[in-house]
From TrEMBL:
<dbReference type="GO" id="GO:0009088">
    <property type="term" value="P:threonine biosynthetic process"/>
</dbReference>
<feature type="binding site">
    <location>
        <begin position="174"/>
        <end position="175"/>
    </location>
    <ligand>
        <name>ATP</name>
    </ligand>
</feature>
<dbReference type="InterPro" id="IPR054352">
    <property type="entry name" value="ACT_Aspartokinase"/>
</dbReference>
<keyword id="KW-0418">Kinase</keyword>
<dbReference type="InterPro" id="IPR018042">
    <property type="entry name" value="Aspartate_kinase_CS"/>
</dbReference>
<dbReference type="Pfam" id="PF00696">
    <property type="entry name" value="AA_kinase"/>
</dbReference>
<keyword id="KW-0457">Lysine biosynthesis</keyword>
<feature type="binding site">
    <location>
        <begin position="210"/>
        <end position="211"/>
    </location>
    <ligand>
        <name>ATP</name>
    </ligand>
</feature>
<keyword id="KW-0028">Amino-acid biosynthesis</keyword>
<feature type="binding site">
    <location>
        <begin position="7"/>
        <end position="10"/>
    </location>
    <ligand>
        <name>ATP</name>
    </ligand>
</feature>
<feature type="binding site">
    <location>
        <position position="185"/>
    </location>
    <ligand>
        <name>ATP</name>
    </ligand>
</feature>
<dbReference type="GO" id="GO:0009089">
    <property type="term" value="P:lysine biosynthetic process via diaminopimelate"/>
</dbReference>
<keyword id="KW-0067">ATP-binding</keyword>
<dbReference type="InterPro" id="IPR001048">
    <property type="entry name" value="Asp/Glu/Uridylate_kinase"/>
</dbReference>
<dbReference type="GO" id="GO:0005829">
    <property type="term" value="C:cytosol"/>
</dbReference>
<dbReference type="InterPro" id="IPR045865">
    <property type="entry name" value="ACT-like_dom_sf"/>
</dbReference>
<dbReference type="InterPro" id="IPR002912">
    <property type="entry name" value="ACT_dom"/>
</dbReference>
């Protein structure tokens, strides 16, 4: 029988009532003749609560134990979803990541899926089970420890299952009815897109649009998974939501198709480091070993052989970054006068594949921000995106102004 993957995010399984609603949707697909793999997230707020417990217990935690704790939210929903389906007379059972198994790397708290062994679930489908409910976000390392895939990782679980089972489609059910030109929660002029190209979705996701986890888009692109984002609260239909697809399948496109933001950014500056060959490696090597995800980097001009080095990273990695840099200083590998962390910044980005062939986008973006009196602290560009770091208090304003400037609310 054809396989369908249906993923339900936190708000879609936030209460027993919502789990029942989600289960009914699954029942509809089962009745159409699909064997269904349901991927569930933890109930809304649960993962944050678990992360809070870990932070309070041990600020620079052992990531293996972090994973043991934060993966547990998904186990509850998987069991409850299976029970709900059974109550509806749909043959279903739950699976935790290690039971499938979902094999991952050992990079705890941000592990990557290496392999999904489909045999156990296939055997159960062959015996008449119609729904495999799988706990999203988790897997097992080669050492046999529980891993998690990074925040929002259930999306990636879903796409990886769709690829492993050659599913007809991977439907991501969430609390918005598709992918928008920007987050509809902070810009009421945001427009829903019927289709979005993999490349653009990849950029938007990696720049903060949390509607899909970045890695899920990467996998969908690589394995050509038919990926759809839709609301779990609206009428079910085969054409609802947004289809994430190849660039060739999109009829109309603008220069900029989306604006993304990332609220929890921090800007760190190493004041007065020696400007010598190898200095960047001496700084960013230890940061990478400490698991700090460095994003933007700028090195100021050098004066008398010394320079300032600025980089951005997620706010919750500042403590780790500080420790790594102070340790490197203590070992004599680097030398700096001061380390300043600015945790009140946000990143705002404009994304569009049209930028490849059209110039002037950066100029328009900078002019728009300047008209609003917003100071740009750091700039980064790539082929299809421009990002700026600004004071967090201007983030919403910047998103709305850019959405207007690039005429994203209008069609055509
Ligand atoms: P889930 O719990 O279902 O995984 P998430 O909260 O992870 O849901 O992702 C959905 C949220 O993503 C939406 O509620 C919305 O606020 C946010 N979002 C950010 N950017 C966008 C965008 N461009 N389009 C749609 N939603 C977006
Ligand atoms: N529950 C996890 C999180 O909140 C995974 C997910 O929802 O995708 O990050
Ligand atoms: Mg999510």
């Amino acid at each position: 029988m054809p396989v369908l993957v249906m993923k339900f995010g936190g708000t879609s399984v936030a209460t027993l009532d919502r789990i029942r609603r989600a289960a009914k949707r699954v029942g509809v697909e089962v009745a159409k003749g699909y064997d269904v793999i349901v991927i569930v997230s933890a109930m809304a707020g649960e993962t944050n609560k678990l992360v809070g417990y870990v932070d309070e217990t041990s600020p620079l935690y052992d990531a293996r134990e972090y994973d043991a704790v934060v993966s547990s939210g998904e186990n509850v929903t998987a069991g409850l979803m299976a029970l709900t389906l059974q109550e509806m007379d749909v043959p279903a059972r739950s699976w935790q990541g290690w039971q499938v198994p979902v094999k991952t790397t050992s990079a705890h708290s941000q592990a990557r899926i290496e392999d999904i062994v489909p045999d156990n679930i296939r055997a159960k489908f062959a015996e008449g089970m119609r729904v495999a409910v799988v706990a999203g976000f988790q897997g097992v390392s080669p050492e046999g420890r529980i891993t998690t895939l990074g925040r929002g990782g259930s999306d990636t679980t879903a796409v990886a299952f769709a690829a492993a089972f050659q599913a007809e489609r991977c439907d991501i059910y969430t609390d918005v009815d598709g992918v928008y030109t920007t987050d509809p929660r902070i810009c009421d002029k945001a427009r829903k897109l019927d289709r979005i190209a993999f490349e653009e979705m990849l950029e938007l996701a990696s720049l903060g649009a949390k509607v899909l986890q970045t890695r899920s888009v990467e996998l969908a692109m690589r394995y050509n998974v038919k990926l759809r984002v839709l609301s779990s609260f609206e009428e079910q239909s085969d054409t609802a939501g947004t289809l994430v697809c190849a660039e060739e399948d999109i009829m109309e496109s603008k220069v900029v198709n989306g604006v993304a933001y990332s609220r929890d950014e921090a800007k760190m500056t190493l004041v007065s480091v020696a400007d010598r060959p190898g200095i960047a490696a001496a700084i960013f090597g230890p940061l990478s070993e400490a698991g700090v995800n460095v994003d933007m980097i700028i090195q100021n001009i050098s004066e008398e052989g010394r320079t300032d080095m600025t980089f951005s990273c997620p706010t919750d990695q500042v403590a780790r970054a500080e420790k790594a840099l102070h340790d490197a200083k203590a070992r004599g590998e680097i030398n700096f006068h001061d380390l300043i962390a600015d945790t009140n910044v946000a990143k705002v980005s404009a994304v569009g594949i049209g930028m490849r062939s059209q110039s002037g986008v950066a100029a328009r973006m900078f002019k728009t921000l300047s008209d609003e009196g917003i100071n740009i602290k750091v700039i980064a560009t790539s082929e299809i995106k421009i990002s700026v770091l600004i004071d967090r208090k201007y983030m919403e304003l910047a998103v709305q102004a850019l959405h207007d400037a690039f005429a994203l609310e209008k069609t055509g």
